[in-house]
């Protein structure tokens, strides 16, 4: 590590180390989540369980507003510990250490703050990563991702600029189909975009990248979407976020590599089966950002059965240790599983009841805890709407028609919701002001839409994964959510969508059936039903 001598100050506490040889932390002696954030707190707990966690150091919430010079002293020592633990050197032109920089508040705030990946990759360290991996596609993919991520998070550039670059090079192809020469061209195009739009060059000094990334992640605590989330959930503005700096593992290494997000049980129904989205040859942001579509785990279990078996074992260990359904993120690098996060999963009230009852019967929680988790749940709160109508009302021409879906999406949250199409927050607020039920219809499932989502009855997107941060938030807010509707095109200029080839102007009423994934034009008749057996099991628990 080519660093200047760090300034000395006895008042500075050392960073918390995770997975490093000189880390003596045990779960029983951990700093609390209020100090190191819930993400890092659970990383240490996972490492203590013997689960595979990349080495990291944590800058606590007390550094939220610290001067850069003081903050620098703390991360210098953490960086030295990571270098020692990994045998790699940050900024080295032979065997470079690359880092992720992640936020982590004392309570879970999915996707409301920022993450930066591949920090430390520059024109000088590129050849070193190429030599150490022998994988030119990985190297140029990581570099173009870093440039775009840095441009968005640190420099405040619009993500659409980098999406346009991708379209120019890829000509409509999935980015995972691009070869290394095309990714190299894309990286060069991103460099020009940063220079043109930001009026400055992308930094080629690794320490500058790291310092700016840490500062930007701390600053994201004050982002409008983070503030709105705290307002909706009654969270204090004074908690601040911690920052976790972690060794990169590469899901975009090709072969048996990829990124995934999952729940140890179904977050809408509570069914005791893993609910996982996975993308081969991808990094974690591809799944959680809502800008890419991801499917279930079938391909992972088929092509990498040993990894799937290891993941199932890890899921069982997490549930036993944490005593609840878990929402986890993971990366597979050349067949090696790495866990990047776990937390108690957001869920519907129906899933809340079933999961608590199942955990109680499995002996993972006691009777008192099961009663606490199901307190206040009754027939009214547990009822779910189900479509029963044979005809829909409210077609664009005002006529009724036989009930038939016009398109289908992936269900991220169950239930049924009807409302007028709103294509952005401004239109959503207009509908809300006139007490008109609305559905937010967007190209991507992004957490920046949280204010509009709060006043909508549901969310429909053309891209995105069931486990993306926006889908998690929608489910927790009790909204019906369908993502990855491949028959949806949105023309914002004309304020029209095309759904299954049918043009529908903004304001047209749609119905989303989160139970089946079907989408209907108009409203439909529904009945409310409680999932079978839940009330009887609750009565047994409360005897």
UniProtKB/TrEMBL annotation:
Database matches in PROSITE patterns: PEP_ENZYMES_PHOS_SITE
Chain segments annotated as coiled-coil in the UniProt record: none
Molecular function in Gene Ontology: ATP binding; kinase activity; pyruvate, phosphate dikinase activity
UniProt cross-references to InterPro entries, sorted A to Z: ATP_grasp_subdomain_1, PEP-util_enz_mobile_dom, PEP_util_AS, Phosphohistidine_dom_sf, PPDK_AMP/ATP-bd, Pyruvate_phosphate_dikinase
UniProt name for this protein: Pyruvate phosphate dikinase
Species of the source: Lampropedia hyalina DSM 16112
Domain of life from the UniProt record: Bacteria
Residue span, Pyruvate phosphate dikinase AMP/ATP-binding domain: 87-293, 306-357
Species lineage: Bacteria, Pseudomonadati, Pseudomonadota, Betaproteobacteria, Burkholderiales
Gene3D superfamilies per UniProt: 1.20.80.30, ATP-grasp fold, A domain (3.30.1490.20), ATP-grasp fold, B domain (3.30.470.20), Phosphohistidine domain (3.50.30.10), Pyruvate Phosphate Dikinase, domain 2 (1.10.189.10)
UniProt keyword annotation of Kinase present: yes
């Amino acid at each position: 590590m080519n660093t200047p001598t760090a300034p000395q100050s006895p008042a500075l506490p050392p960073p918390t180390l995770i997975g490093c040889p000189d880390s003596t932390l045990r779960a029983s002696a951990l700093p609390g989540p209020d100090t190191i954030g819930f993400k890092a707190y659970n990383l240490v707990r996972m490492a203590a369980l013997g689960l595979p966690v990349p080495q990291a150091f944590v800058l606590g919430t007390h550094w939220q507003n610290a001067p850069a010079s003081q903050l620098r002293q703390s991360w210098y020592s953490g960086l030295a510990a990571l270098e020692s633990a990994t045998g790699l050197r940050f900024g080295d032109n032979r065997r470079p250490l690359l880092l992720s920089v992640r936020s982590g508040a004392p309570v879970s705030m999915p996707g409301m703050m920022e993450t930066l990946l591949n920090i430390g990759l520059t024109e000088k360290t590129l050849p070193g990563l190429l030599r150490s991996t022998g994988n030119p596609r990985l190297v140029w993919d990581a570099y173009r991702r870093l440039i775009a991520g840095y441009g968005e998070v640190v420099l405040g550039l619009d993500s659409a600029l980098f999406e346009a670059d991708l379209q120019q090079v890829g000509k409509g192809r999935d980015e995972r189909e691009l070869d290394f020469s095309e990714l190299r061209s894309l990286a060069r195009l991103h460099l020009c975009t940063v220079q043109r739009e930001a009026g400055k060059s992308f930094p080629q000094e690794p320490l500058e990248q790291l310092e700016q990334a840490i500062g930007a992640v701390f600053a994201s605590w004050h982002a409008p979407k983070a503030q709105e989330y705290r307002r909706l959930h009654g969270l204090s503005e004074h908690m601040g976020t911690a920052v976790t700096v972690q060794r990169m593992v590469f899901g975009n290494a090709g072969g048996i590599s990829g990124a995934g997000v999952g729940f140890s049980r179904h977050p809408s129904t509570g069914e005791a089966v893993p609910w996982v989205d996975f993308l081969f040859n991808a990094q974690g942001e591809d799944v959680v950002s809502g800008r890419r579509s991801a499917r279930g785990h079938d391909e992972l279990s088929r092509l990498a059965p040993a990894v799937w078996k290891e993941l199932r074992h890890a899921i069982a260990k997490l549930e036993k240790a944490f005593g609840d359904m878990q929402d986890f993120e993971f990366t597979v690098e050349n067949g090696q599983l790495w866990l990047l996060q776990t937390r108690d999963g957001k869920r519907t009230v129906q899933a809340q009841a079933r999961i608590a009852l199942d955990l109680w019967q499995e002996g993972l929680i006691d009777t008192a805890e099961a009663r606490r988790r199901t307190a206040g749940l009754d027939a009214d709160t547990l009822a779910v709407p189900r479509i029963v109508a044979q005809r829909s009302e409210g077609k664009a021409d005002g006529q009724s028609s036989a009930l038939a879906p016009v398109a289908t999406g992936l269900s991220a949250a169950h239930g049924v919701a009807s409302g007028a199409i709103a294509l952005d927050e401004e239109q959503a607020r207009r509908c809300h002001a006139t007490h008109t039920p609305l559905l937010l219809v967007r190209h991507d499932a992004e957490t920046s839409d949280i204010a509009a989502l709060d006043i909508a009855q549901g969310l429909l997107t053309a891209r995105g994964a069931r486990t993306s941060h926006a889908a998690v938030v929608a489910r927790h807010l009790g909204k019906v959510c369908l993502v990855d509707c491949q028959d949806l095109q949105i023309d914002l200029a004309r304020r029209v969508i095309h759904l299954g080839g049918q043009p529908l102007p903004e304001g047209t009423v749609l119905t989303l059936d989160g139970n089946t994934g079907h989408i209907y034009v108009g409203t439909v008749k529904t009945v409310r039903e409680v999932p079978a057996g839940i009330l009887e099991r609750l009565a047994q628990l409360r005897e």
